[in-house]
Amino acid sequence: MATGTTFAHRHILGMEQLSREDIVHILATADSFKEISTRSIKKVPTLRGHTIINLFFEPSTRTRLSFEVAAKRMSADTFNISPSTSSTTKGETLADTARNISAMHPDIIIIRHSCSGAPLFLTRYVQAAVINAGDGAHEHPSQGLLDLMTVKEHRATLSGLKIAIVGDIAHSRVARSDIIGFTRMGSEVYIYGPATLIPKGINQLGATLCASLEDAVRDADVVMTLRIQRERQNDPLLPSLREYSRQFGISRHILSLARPDALVMHPGPVNRGVELPPEVADGPQSVILDQVTNGVAVRMALLYLVMGNS
Ligand code: CP
Question: Whose CA is nearest to atom 3 of ligand 1?
């Protein structure tokens, strides 16, 4: 499509598997689809007759809804399964759930799961294309792609930028996908957060660990904050949220250290008053809702490309 190259991936399991050319191709395709969402009739026949199943084992507002919106805007038939109302509550395994879903011949399965590797596991049991909508602390590739798209829209390039990522890096699949994606596109990623929430070996992903919040944010083109994921912490890893906010929150003063036109980003959901005060989350530099808008376009592109279109 937009780049005139082919897209070779049957499944989207992580940014790790996507080359620079793949990312350029996906973003160009998403760019060409974005306009559809601004039409009065927001529907094209591109995926008519295709069956898409949303299999979300963890809560989601943005990802699940935007995959469904994307599929419906392309005329696909979509179905949602949530674990609380599925036979997993009766002890059915993920493999058996997958085999049974596959027997109904879906074309695409979108999965969110608390276990890293669950989407890869699913590919062994289904004929359908599998898209990872977030697996444990591993990856969230569609979020990484929509973050790249949002920055590219505002900066025109992804090369040579300073990206600061602040917060709970250890539990964040978004951080992993963003670090891989931004570094692959030529940006430099600087991270900062509580020592207990920085995973060992983070430098191997290509990010630089900073000694202070000021070092991370100074002259940044993008300040990305992450939510504290208390649901993934068996033991408390923070003294208190108030303390966290004081040491790691992006106040207006901290933001003033970044470039004057720096973008404030957050994958959501935002803990208002913890990682971002309202005046920054809703301020003129915030592109948080642009990220959500671009999520639909990126997910339309992924659905289109995994179906062999290019
Ligand atoms: N960014 C993100 O994954 O949000 P949801 O958990 O609401 O899908």
Answer: 63
pLDDT tens-digit readout, 6-27: 899 999 999 999 999 999 999 9
pLDDT of residue 232: 60
Can you give the pTM of this predicted structure? 0.95
CB of 134 closer than 6 angstroms to any ligand 1 atom: yes
Supply the mean pLDDT for the chain. Answer: 94
Name the residue range of residue 36's domain: 15-139+295-308
Q: What CATH code is carried by the domain that includes residue 249?
A: 3.40.50.1370
How far, rounded to the nearest angstrom, does the alpha carbon of residue 8 sit from its chain's CA centroid?
Answer: 21
Q: Into how many domains does the chain fold?
A: 2
Residue 239 CA to ligand 1 centre (angstroms): 26
- Taking 50 as the pLDDT cut, the residues of the chain under it are 1-2
Extract the tokens encoding 153.
């829209």
Long-range contacts of 267-272 (CB under 8 A, 24+ apart): 267/62, 267/140, 267/143, 267/147, 267/174, 267/224, 267/226, 267/227, 267/291, 268/61, 268/62, 268/227, 268/292, 269/61, 269/227, 270/227, 271/227, 271/228, 271/241
Output the pLDDT for position 82. 86
195 three-state secondary structure: helix
Residue type, 51: T
What are the distances in angstroms from CA 165 to CA 25, 61, 210, 215, 265? Answer: 25, 22, 10, 12, 9
Task: Please tell me the distance from the alpha carbon of residue 166 to that of residue 275, in angstroms, as a whole number.
Answer: 9
